[in-house]
Write a structure and sequence with these properties.
heterodimer; A: alpha/beta; Aspartate Aminotransferase, domain 1; Aspartate Aminotransferase, domain 2; 7-stranded mixed β-sheet; 4-stranded antiparallel β-sheet; 14 helices; 14% strand; B: alpha/beta; 2 domains; 15 helices; 12 strands; 11% strand
């Protein structure tokens, strides 16, 4: 089965039009010496057999786990309209809107997406999405260096360690100085960040809430960075912005994050999308596709890909990034998600996450020997300090079908007794209570 | 059409969330709280459904229109693939990174491992990482692997060589890996000029990046010679797999001498393009480069068990949050499983047949800069029509009015007024004949009534749009609310 529709008669007619005897003739430009030495693949099968095989694989993944883990991927509700509407074939099976007249659906949706991202982050401009939160952070780091003409970055150690690894990979072959500031138990270490900040610094890069869950008012960091001609780059958790002051209001210049939590399933880590937004002054340093509003010949509103002179298909090696595609469909899901919950629902969603996490925090930290690491406010994640190493505890709770948290020892060796617990709106009070009981058992029985 | 924000009515609600089952917690400190609304639209669910349904109707798509966008392989996206991907929607990517957590994600890990094996066999490489999130991301990953290889061997390398017909992502990706670019012009047969290439090759060249068949749709018969010349300078050979749809079962880049490749699963392996993404850009390497692949690496730990490796000292590191665009890979795996060996060979044969058919039927009407047998796509020039003041873009717009998504225009850059047509194997002769008739009509109109082309399109929700105004005003966000 290859979904090739032409009949043998049609194939003969086509070969005759070409002036070839057989399909093999068409491969004559390939010298015999270059032909494939092997092509050892299984035989094909029907879709029913394929789905049976996929079901076998799917059944090898655990079902009905109680998820209290995040680490960059979050288990949130996805309203049914998100998949139904984003699954419209006209969105699903189109491509990059190079021809705007017959792509206004995608273009307007992405313009609306950019508008939602700008409003959420308090920024002026957004692109049409990037791959994921980690690569968005790396692109933001490169963008900050381009915008300032400087080659030094200060990274707070409270940034998701995977995202910091991605930044390191992206910048491995570039001339850049990266200073990573060790995280403490609360907000980003002001003294250490200020000690590293100088007039060669392109940006201070922070995550809010940080990997441990702590929320930070970044306003003073923005002011200090700006005083040295540097930028503040903030990676944020979009759902927190239903209650937390926007990074724009705190003074950030470039804001990034991962959009998976907005209407995209966990799907073992992808696909979802990353977002990047900035103050207007930096638009020409921005990577990726950008949609702009304009008018047609009759003066009607319409949307086009704009500022393409930044991009690789025009600028080649001088482009702002090598990025070509975006995560259009996942960004569309993000937009539909935001519009489906709306202003009030989004605030409620943030509140639910906050309240449930606060409940869990109180419940879990009342267990003997268990304390909370975070010295400040948190949103829907917090870090527990256990009386024993966290890894065996997490492993034991997995036997109870509870993914209790992400142990920190692998990321921060001095925090081997700690784990980050995530509580989204999907976790019920009963699940939280069960987690508390099982944690108590694991520690003391 | 109104923006979703313009349909908003204060107080209107869409989807309802669960009621809280926990006590209301103490408020956050005031300095952390936002003081103004976010500015999200407030619409009922039906308003939302109508808005996006009607928006979708303003798109051409593979499911509604022939979409012969050259270099993008817009083949039919088999519906069963979606069902397959849905089976994995709830798997958390942190599970295998938890102690004892691998057992809870065996199916996902097995699928990734098996897909890597299938892609290795299809391309003749020794190992594939599925982590890169798109083709360009794969290119960057691939060139970083090359850079890490040279660094580990103490090689002093400065340049990456690309032909002038290459995708723009090739030089852009090489630049991100810290290399300077040498661009080699094409010769009169459309291939990279071999003599100029030979002259450009020095021991300072880290890699040569080739697309084969190239962006003109032509198979370069000297490809092995190019690899050999590169290897003689201890440069590595990079294969841009954008055009793999032409050669499955016919040529394997690994057999020819390529050291690193990337694939575009959303092209060759039939996953939906989603209006610009998500893509997926796995990277395959030869054995000597395996140590440099990104982490985490998927490994088989017993006859039936799979795990991950993160401690790999020579690795370039992590290039994405987790394991790549997993959902896209499920679809590609399902596609390969359904088509099997014979099906994939048939894909390439019929893709090449379809492209040659269109080329044969249209060559009397449009200039064909390179006349030899093409592979999966053919590139015309509208230079003949330009004499009447009609550009490639005008022909594209005329096609829109007749219900066809235009081919890629103005690429590759080394063909003036390029029209790049890639029908793919899933299109029938009937569909292509209808397209050919309209292309012939457009060529006729260019001579007799060029205004008809210059005015097009007239049947869409908007006519031609003012791109200069968009770039000048930079109105990229709806601010009034």
């Amino acid at each position: 089965m290859s979904y090739c529709p032409n009949t043998p008669e049609e194939i003969s007619d086509m070969l005759a039009a070409i002036g070839a005897v057989s399909v093999d003739d068409l491969f004559a430009p390939i010298p015999a010496a270059l032909r494939a030495k092997s092509f050892d693949l299984p035989d094909g099968m029907s879709e029913f057999e394929m789905l049976r095989q996929m079901q076998y694989l799917a059944d090898r993944n655990a079902k009905h786990l109680s998820l209290f883990i995040g680490g960059g991927a979050y288990d949130h509700v996805i309203p049914a309209v998100v998949d139904h509407l984003s699954g419209r074939a006209e969105f699903y099976t189109a491509y990059t809107p190079y021809q705007p007249e017959c792509s206004q659906g995608t273009l307007q949706a992405l313009f609306e997406y950019q508008s939602v991202i700008c409003r959420l982050t308090g920024m002026d401009v957004s692109n049409a999405s990037l791959y994921d939160g980690g690569t968005a952070l790396a692109e933001a780091a490169v963008m900050a260096m381009r915008a300032t003409g400087r080659r030094k970055l200060i990274l707070d150690g409270g940034i998701n360690p995977y995202h910091r690894q991605i930044v390191a990979t992206y910048l491995e072959d570039q001339e850049v100085e990266i200073v990573t500031v060790t995280p403490g138990t609360g907000i980003a270490d002001r003294a250490a960040l200020m000690a590293a900040l100088d007039d060669r610094t392109a940006a201070i890069v922070v995550q809010n809430p940080n990997f441990f869950g702590t929320l930070d008012d970044l306003s003073d960091l923005a002011a200090e960075a700006h005083g040295k001609g540097a930028l503040l780059v903030a990676s944020v958790y979009p759902i927190s912005l239903g209650m937390v002051k926007s990074p724009g209001a705190m003074g950030a210049d470039i804001v990034v994050g991962d959009g998976q939590c907005l209407g995209n399933p966990l799907s073992f880590g992808g696909p979802a999308f990353g977002f990047i937004a900035a103050k207007k002054a930096f638009i020409r340093s921005m990577p990726g596709r950008i949609i702009g509003q304009t008018v047609d010949r009759q003066g009607r509103r319409g949307f086009v890909l704009t500022l393409q002179a930044r991009e690789q298909h025009i600028k080649r090696h001088k482009a702002t990034s090598n990025i070509c595609s975006n995560q259009g469909l996942c960004a569309l899901k993000g937009l539909i998600f935001m519009a489906s919950v709306g202003e009030t629902g989004f605030a409620e969603l943030a509140r639910l996450n906050y309240d449930k996490a606060e409940y869990a925090k109180e419940r879990l930290s009342s267990i003997k020997g268990v304390t909370v690491l975070n010295s400040g406010a948190t949103f829907n994640e917090f870090t527990l300090v256990l009386p024993t190493p966290a890894e065996p505890v997490v492993e034991r709770l997995l036997h109870n079908r509870i993914a209790a948290g992400v142990p920190l020892g692998g990321f921060y060796p001095h925090l081997a007794d700690c784990m980050v617990v995530t509580v989204t709106e999907k976790r019920t009070r009963a699940e939280i209570d069960t987690l508390a009981e099982k944690l108590q058992e694991a520690l003391w029985n | 059409m109104e923006l979703i924000f313009e349909k908003s009515v204060t107080g209107r609600r869409g989807v309802r969330l669960p009621a809280s089952d926990v006590p209301r917690a103490a408020a956050l400190p005031a300095n952390l709280l936002h003081s103004a609304p976010v500015g999200l639209p407030e619409v009922a669910e039906l308003d939302l459904v109508r808005h996006f349904t009607n928006l979708s109707r303003r798109n051409f798509s593979v499911d509604t229109n022939f979409y012969p966008l050259g270099s993008c392989t817009m083949k039919y996206n088999v519906k069963a693939l979606e069902n397959a991907a849905g089976l994995f929607a709830g798997v958390h990517p942190m599970l295998p990174l938890l102690p004892g957590g691998e057992t809870h994600a065996q199916g996902a890990l097995e699928m990734l491992f098996e897909l890597g094996g299938l892609l290795s066999e299809i391309t003749g490489m020794d190992e594939v990482t599925t982590q890169p999130l798109a083709g360009a991301h794969g290119e960057m990953t691939g060139v970083m692997i090359i850079a890490a290889y040279h660094r580990a061997r103490g090689n002093k390398k400065r340049y990456v060589v690309v032909p002038d017909s290459s995708h723009g992502t090739n030089p852009a990706s090489a630049a991100m890996a810290g290399y300077e670019i040498i661009t080699i012009p094409s010769d009169t047969s459309g291939d990279m000029d071999l003599e100029l290439f030979r002259q450009a090759m020095t021991d300072e060249v880290a890699a040569v990046m080739m697309t084969c068949p190239n962006t003109l749709g032509l198979f370069n018969p000297h490809i092995k010679e190019i690899c050999d010349i590169a290897h003689a300078h201890d440069a590595l050979c990079y294969y841009d797999g954008a055009n793999l749809n032409a050669i499955m079962g016919k040529v394997r880049p690994g057999d020819v001498g390529f050291d690193v490749i990337h694939l575009n699963l959303h092209k060759t392996f039939g996953t939906p393009h989603g209006g610009g993404g998500p893509g997926s850009g796995p990277v395959g390497v030869k054995e000597a480069l395996i140590p440099y692949l990104p982490v985490p690496r998927i490994v088989k730990t017993s006859e039936v068990d799979f795990g991950i490796e993160t401690d790999r000292p020579l690795s370039i590191g992590r290039t994405a949050n987790f394991f790549g665009n997993f959902g896209v890979m499920v679809k590609a795996y399902a596609y390969i499983t359904m088509l099997g060996r014979a099906g994939l060979i048939q894909v390439s044969e019929q893709a090449v047949l379809n492209a040659n058919y269109i080329m044969a039927r249209l060559k009397g009407y449009y200039d064909l800069p390179f006349e030899q047998t093409c592979m999966h796509e053919c590139v015309f020039s509208a230079s003949r029509q330009l004499k009447h003041g009609v550009h490639a873009i005008d022909i594209a717009k005329f096609l829109i009015d007749r219900g066809f998504h235009p081919p890629t225009v103005y690429f590759p850059l080394n063909v003036k007024e390029a029209i790049m047509i890639e029908p793919t194997e899933t299109e029938s002769k009937s569909t292509m004949d209808a397209f050919i008739d309209v292309m012939i009509e457009a060529a006729g109109q260019a001579g007799h009534n060029p205004q008809a082309l210059l005015d097009a399109p007239l049947t869409m929700p908007v006519s031609r749009l003012d791109e200069t105004k968009a770039a000048r005003e930079q109105h990229v966000c709806c601010v009034d609310y």
